[in-house]
Amino acid sequence: MITKRNFALGGLLIGAVLAAWFFHRSSIKRLQDENRSLREQVAELQSSSNRQKRSGGLRLPVPRLQGTGTRTQAEAADAKAAELAAQFQVPKLSIEQVEKFLAGNQRSAASLVAAFRTSGESDFLTEAMQKYPNDPQVAFEALFHGNLAPEERRKWIDSFKQSDPDNPLANYLAAQDYFKSGQGDLAVGELEAASRKSAFNDLTLNRMQFNEEAYRANGFSEAQSRSAAMFQLDLPLLKEMKSLGENMVDLARSYREAGDFASSEAAVAMAVNLGEQYRNSGNALLVHQMLGFDIEQSALNVLDPASPFGPDG
What we know:
- By secondary structure, the chain is an all-alpha fold.
- The chain has helices at 4-22, 28-36, 39-54, 71-85, 95-103, 109-119, 122-131, 136-145, 150-163, 169-180, 184-195, 204-216, 222-232, 236-257, 261-280, 286-300.
């Protein structure tokens, strides 16, 4: 059984992991202070974005991306995070334990992927992918843990879009895939599609809830189940969205370098929108808020503070 002392230690370690991984250069106080001065700029960006949409969106083909030079630092932070995470391990559930949990949930899509997460047995994810190819939670796990070939990944992203049509998350994942493969024009199309959707949900709380139920079904106390579910849950999307934010900032900067200021401002507006969605979503854990602030700050730094901006100059 996990002791309170272990959970307390785990909390400290997980906090250090997340801070080192994504935001080692930032502090919440700095972000909150700076955020107060950004709100009027955000409103102007949204107005600019609306005008840009009416004129046909971002100009294609996209200019060559300039690159931010920050990814090496991110990789170093990842290595440090892995080292810290290794010092605290939440026990995995046995196959017998997760089978008991599955029986009580009729082997639903959400329970199967929770069984995979809490046991580490890939057969449960495989079963979920076979039985529930049109479930967004299954699509999420498949995309991050299914060892998919590129063409299979494309199919699962399309399935995600169809099963959760008002959620822009699948479009963001598609855009990031296209950025990685150097297909900037296709990435822009996905970003524009994402900007027209408002029901953002990165599924963090859904995933955590079913992990908690799996532990509770096997004799863990309420507090232990909640703590184990939180510490056990991986958050691969945070790293992916941080990288997407960097690519969107690269895009805005590249448009600006090419002299296309309207497209640059529209790209900044899209990046700010991504940051706001993370800060304001129902899944807004502390790390989500920090990610949102970081994306917004980086995007607004593209703008020239000495140049007129917005409809009123």
